[in-house]
Amino acid sequence: MRLKRIMLRYFPPGIGLEYIQGGCTKTKEIDLFDLTSSTDIEELAFAVAKGEPLITPNIHHQLVDSLRRLQKKIFSTTIHRFYRHKTLKTHLLPLTNVAFDKFGKKCLTGSYDRTCKVWDIETGEEVHTLQGHKNVVYAVAFNNPSGDKILTGSFDKTARLWSYETGECKQTFSGHSGEVVAVQFDPQKQLIATASMDTTARLYNSATGSL
């Protein structure tokens, strides 16, 4: 067996050991329920290593560093303050979902008013209102990392593909017999996936709209 890495588990406290055995990658978890802010990490590391053959002397320092990071993270008293950046208000009815592009410069909002709105995060200005769905727009997504296309899913049982630049609908994906509640682009941008209340998921060709 060969240890690959030590992973931290914040709740409940513990660590994960990822290792190679027989050519396969496996993991095991070690619970640290008694970890407190006053726990002596050196003593804890020796106790963990004593019963674990994956923890050899040459990686003892790595275990100590990992346990210290875990302790610091869990029992940190640092107060994180968050401030409102912008308030986006133009939808007529409640919102259903939001999505950012990869760089955090664009934002999508879906709404019960049957529209998806595209926003410029820096200015807070509305870039487009995507209209065409005949019911609630429940799911929204960018085709990250490029962010030049937008996908929406609706309670009208369809999904739609839009151009970010023009706000024009490029494709409508039909076939579900229930509300579309999740949409996603594949990493190669050739397929789009939809999930529906009809208990099915579908894969469509993003260029042709066919299954």
From TrEMBL:
Gene3D superfamilies listed in its UniProt record: YVTN repeat-like/Quinoprotein amine dehydrogenase (2.130.10.10)
CDD domains: WD40
Matching PROSITE patterns: WD_REPEATS_1, WD_REPEATS_2, WD_REPEATS_REGION
InterPro entries: WD40/YVTN_repeat-like_dom_sf, WD40_PAC1, WD40_repeat_CS, WD40_repeat_dom_sf, WD40_rpt
WD repeats: 88-129, 130-172, 173-211
Alphabetized UniProt keyword annotations: Repeat, WD repeat
Keyword hit for Repeat: yes
Identification of the protein by name: Uncharacterized protein
Organism in which the protein naturally occurs: Graphocephala atropunctata
